[in-house]
Amino acid sequence: xxxxxxxxxxxxxxxxxxxxxxxxxxxxxxxxxxxxxxxxxxxxxxxxxxxxxxxxxxxxxxxxxxxxxxxxxxxxxxxxxxxxxxxxxxxxxxxxxxxxxxxxxxxxxxxxxxxx
Length: 116
Ligand SMILES: [Zn+2]
Ligand SMILES: [Zn+2]
Fold this sequence. Notes:
single chain, 116 residues, mainly alpha, two-stranded antiparallel ribbon, two-stranded antiparallel sheet, 2 helices
């Protein structure tokens, strides 16, 4: 039984796409790390890889930047609150309440990050 290229019905071939198993001639193949691919599968793979790496780098950079600013801000806020309460001699429950509010803000923020 003669196998012909899916694209060129008059060309015999022994090659086939490693992803979709379509028979392909050597004009219609794209070499990849996982073997021979047809042009359809080859063109699906490439832009997806580029999109993932580029947007992932941007996302990680922006998230880590926002996160470090946020942590720095919250950390100094906690220090200011605790120091002020100590200096003013206020009751401890005020400090505990402030810490609870800050913890809540943290939890909401982590929820947003995980949701992304
Ligand atoms: Zn294919
Ligand atoms: Zn072909």
